[in-house]
Every structure is written in structure tokens, then in C-alpha cells.
Amino acid sequence: QVLSLPIVVIVHGNQDNNAKATVLWDNAFSEIDRVPFVVAERVPWEKMCDTLNLKFMAEVQTTKGLLKEHYFFLAQKIFNDHSASLEDFQNRSVSWAQFNKEILPGRGFTFWQWFDGVLDLTKRCLKSYWSDRLIIGFISKQYVCKLLSTEPDGTFLLRFSDSEIGGVTIAHVIRGKDGSSQVENIQPFSAKDLSIRSLGDRIRDLGQLRNLYPNTPKDQAFGSHYNSEWVGAE
After folding, report:
1. Out of 5, 81, 112, 230, which could bridge 100 as a Cys pair, Cβ 3.0 to 4.6 Å?
2. Are 128 and 225 in contact (CB under 8 A)?
3. Does domain 41-225 have CATH number 3.30.505.10?
């Protein structure tokens, strides 16, 4: 006899997400010579970061992994702590419950369900944008406001939606005649939306978007992602 790789038997597609979480946790954190089915209940946050990064790069099939500031945002989300520093998180451990049992505050889904939605969206619709580093993605709405509030009118960036699974939204600054600024977030685009019209073309359509944060003209940043359009005979 020989031990197999971890498997989970499911009877319905709605169990797929939890099954993937179980297999990922077991593959990443179980000991080779363990007792079967015994897996650590808590793991160091740094090991979790490595696992999320490897999973993201493998699933999306990109060489551009997660950055330090992405890990900081993910730590704030999974620990529900917006006061700790990056260094504070490095010494923490994360539990299976925090990963895929506890519902995120004010949401209807777990951390893993949210992250898996980002994976699926990026893999299906955003791979080239991510690989070109055009999407910050893992950044909080509050920090976006801080970044954009001092920028010129029409400066924008792209972030993954906090409120929806598998959505990407565009945050942009509107500056009034009196010099006051307001940061608006456009309704998130889902994979279905982006299969109808690509992200690049949607950005081209929106005249209020001018420069990708910090200061790259949008046509320069996204021009290679625009689809050449033609109008047939009527």
C-alpha cells in the first residue's frame, strides 16, 4: 500500500471551493511522515504567503507573483486587523478557520472563497494585465483613497472588489473646480462582464479615466490591450 496525494470526494459543484481549500491546506502544510489525515490547525503567516503566491502564479500561469504590499493587504483581511504593521504580521500564525471557515466581517464568504474568486477572474480575463503589472489588485478601498486623493483629475487604478467574489473595480479621482477631490469606485466587473467587453476596451470607453496611477497615460499603459474595432456595412 502507498499513501496517495490528498483527495476530496464531492457530490455537487457547490462543494468544489471547499474541496480545493482542503487539498491546498493539506498539500502545503502536512508533514511527509505524518499520521494520515493529520494536518496542522495553525501555520505561520509567512508559510501561508508562500503558498498563496505559488498557487496564484501556477493557477494564473504568470511569472509575476505577489508583492510585499499585497501580503500586507491579505494579512489585514484574513486577521481583520488594520492597526498592525507588516512586521507584526510576520510573527503571527493563521488557522484553518480563518482561512476557510470564518465569514469575513460584513461579507457572506470566507477568505479562501474570496481569494479563489480572484484567482479564477485573473486566470480567465486578466492574466495579461496582471503580468504587465497594470493591476494593483490587492489593495484596500481606504488605502486607494489615500493614494488617489492628492493626484490629478482622472488618475485611476485597478483593485479586486472586497464586496463581490471575482470582481475587479476601477477607482478614480474626480477633482472639483474648487480643488476638492473625490475618489469613486466603478461597479465591479465580473468574468461574465469582461467576456462581453474586455477590460482594456472598457477603460478606453471611459473618458473620465486619464492616467494610470501614478502618472502613466492610459493609452500608453493599456494601448496594447485595446481591440482594434471596425464597423461593418450597415
Report:
1. 112
2. yes
3. yes
